[in-house]
């Protein structure tokens, strides 16, 4: 039987993803050969203390739970918008942990990012160098010297491999991109597939069963047939935005949109409890001070957590703690770095 909600925001991982109903007919992909889900510990970067802690302590709102499940059911990207510190990027790690989707594939966007950066990287100079230093029979096609040895799939390219269950892909701060990237990205996510021209040419010159290509975040090789990649289970894609720009209507229409807002008193207490245990009297004073200042400027939840942690562990007196808390909770500008909690 189908399961709703698949993602619940619960602390214990489970295999509910296997009880998703079939996708809508227009989102039913048939890529292959089907790959086994990756080991959750296969990417040491994705298993860093910071990211592991985020995933285990994330406090989802009811609205978040509903819209994450809508994206999973519809096989659509989830566009998460909100001010810094509201947990936009943490959401991808929390969902991946609960649903056992394996290491999160992360693509950090800058103004110079292009679609190709997310799909794969290819180093023709290293291939040329290798060809010059490798004995090769004169009747061997140049394509047989191993194009795939100088190519690695990017986070987007890896997410679209034909895995048996969805991979989790975080495309962080999409609003910092070049104007063309959202539309370019929309095409690939709509089709669920892409080509690697270097492998397409190589397969024509030296036909073979497939090329073995390195994936993002690991030293594992996967088969790519004739240079074409098509997904099987559409990945769980989280695109984050600080709201610094508007996106094309066609892009918005094909995403499930989630707007995160600053947490209220009860939600902040839940966040503090998840990270640091039951808030004491001084912690509740800091929560109240945090909320009273939010209306005058942007604050991030991790600033509050830092202040509470130091209040508990430093042994400072009340006056010193108040002064330190003020310095740990400065207002953030729109250009602030990515949120962490």
Keywords:
elongated; Rossmann fold; two-stranded antiparallel sheet; 11 strands; 13 helices; alpha/beta; five-stranded parallel β-sheet; 341 residues; single chain
Radius of gyration, in angstroms, nearest whole number = 23 Å
- Gross morphology: elongated
Using the coordinates above, name the CATH class of the largest domain: Alpha Beta
Instruction: Please mark out the parts with pLDDT under 50 across 5 or more consecutive residues, or reply none.
Output: 138-144, 332-341
Binned strand content? 5-15%
**Any idea how many domains?**
2
* CATH H-level superfamily of the largest domain: P-loop containing nucleotide triphosphate hydrolases
Distance between the termini: 34 Å
Strand order of the largest sheet: 2-5-10-1-11
Oligomerization category of the chains in this entry: single chain
The pLDDT mean sits at 85
Number of DSSP-assigned strands? 11
Tell me about this structure.
The protein has two domains: 16-259, P-loop containing nucleotide triphosphate hydrolases (Rossmann fold); 265-328, no CATH class. It has 341 residues and is α/β, with parallel strands linked by helices. The chain is built from 13 helices and eleven strands. The strands form four sheets. The protein has a five-stranded parallel β-sheet with strand order 2-5-10-1-11. It has a two-stranded antiparallel ribbon with strand order 3-4. A two-stranded antiparallel sheet has the order 6-9. It has helices at residues 49-57, 62-74, 88-98, 115-119, 124-132, 155-159, 181-191, 197-205, 249-253, 265-276, 281-294, 301-313, 318-328, and strands spanning 78-81, 105-108, 120-122, 151-153, 168-172, 193-195, 211-214, 221-224, 228-230, 236-241, 256-259.
